[in-house]
Amino acid sequence: MATLNLTESRIRDLPLKSGIWRDEQVKGLLVVCHATTKTYAVQGDVRRNGRHIRTVRVKIDRVDRIGLREARSRARAIMSQIQSGVDPTAGPKESGITLLQALDEHLQEKPLRDATVVSYRYNIEHYLGRYKNRAVADLSRSEVRDIYQHLRSAKGQPTATGVMRTLRAVINTALRLDETLTSNPVTFLRLPTPKSRHVDELDVAEWWEKTEALSPIRRDLHRAMLLTGARRASILNVKRKDVDLARGVLIFNHMKTGGRMLFPMGTFLRNMIAQRLEDDLPFNNPWLWPSPASGKGCTTEPKERKRGLPSPHEYRHHARTMFIAAGVPYAESALLLGQRLPGASGGYVHAEHLVEHLRPHAQALENRIVAVRTSTLRLPATTEERDAA
Q: What is the pLDDT of residue 387?
């Protein structure tokens, strides 16, 4: 932190991204040079009874909005508070719900996946830790904009966007609880929309050959991901008890939309899973995709990028496209992918009551995939063939 006898011209000449410059004349006055703006701020140590409480920094305003003389005047007033033992960033207790309280309320409003809860808490406590005990009412648009710009330059655009979306959702919850709040300052930011994922067309015959080179468990896992189009968490968390061979149903308990899903297995998938259960029986492992090397006991990382195989989410893209190519109607293909149908009437559709209705459509996808595989590869033996043998 360099010290400089600040003047208007010297401040104009300070390069962007050059960091923090301290004023020689007024104790605590700073000029902070961000990536796109310069701001006046005050920094000082709050002490009470000779004991250091905390170091605080208070933004005054942007350099292009006020002059140096006014900035020095405000800095002296704020430093007077700090030297008197007052923390100007604390905010009055009666100012309403704090950010951390709003986060707790938000996480209790509806059931969320464990990963979502961890992500929300990490964003607030790690990236917004210095603000978590601040009242939501004290967060201004300019302060939120500065937080966003700092995160974008220090952590990158994806992280900055994710933190701001978390903050927006938490403040929306605070708005419902605290009637003194009038608006959400995050809504005034222009957050970029996620880019659509580009997925190359899948050569099924070539893909089949590549999966044949995998270990039996990972081979069957990759084929199951394409034949079901299931989400990563759904397919990886299937246990042996979730396979109902008698009904020809694969049960997904980890669903993004909540509840569980009964997926009607086609002939090939059913035989493949039956053989998988039989082969893995000596392992005495409760998971459908066991992995002794995993601390959880099951496969947790199914990607095979080095072999040129799709990711779990890319398999969903391929399955959705192939459903259309196989002539499966939109509603049925959406239900098979574990998606909720749009509109008010979509909430009245219960996919678990439509297992047999959906089975021919799951079979249509399977038929399309199996039909174009390499002709030299043999289907797993059917139940009748194994009995005859």
A: 54
